[in-house]
Amino acid sequence: AGVADLALLIPRNGYGALFVEMKTDKGKQSESQKQWAAQLGNDYLYIVCRSLDQFIKIGTEYLQ
């Protein structure tokens, strides 16, 4: 429980991986999702995305 919906396990820009939690405009993270994200610390990038366009933008920027 709590693990991000998507994971890009490629180190970039000082991060070990990119983790993405997909939510609707009104969707909220569960407590287990918040705890899981907090455990990642600063070594990994964790983002909550609310649209496909936002995910594409963040994923593209991460990979550059």
Defining key terms:
single chain; 3 strands; three-stranded mixed β-sheet; 64 residues; alpha+beta; 2 helices
Concise overview:
The protein has 2 helices and 3 strands; from the N terminus they run ββαβα.
Topology overview:
Blueprint: E1 6-8, E2 18-22, H1 31-40, E3 45-49, H2 52-63
Parallel strand pairs: 2-3
Antiparallel strand pairs: 1-2
Structural summary, described in words:
The chain is built from two helices and three strands, in the order E-E-H-E-H. With 64 residues, it is an alpha+beta fold. The radius of gyration is 11 Å and the shape is flat. The mean pLDDT is 95.
Order of helices and strands: EEHEH
Largest sheet at a glance?
A: 3 strands, mixed
> How far apart lie the N and C ends?
31 Å
Give the overall silhouette: flat
The overall pLDDT, averaged over residues, is 95
Number of helix segments?
A: 2
**Poorly predicted ranges (pLDDT <50, ≥5 residues)?**
none
Helical content class: 25-40%
Estimated structural class:
alpha+beta
Number of DSSP strand runs: 3
SS strand fraction: 15-25%
* Lateral arrangement of strands in the main beta sheet: 1-2-3
Calculate Rg over CA atoms: 11 Å
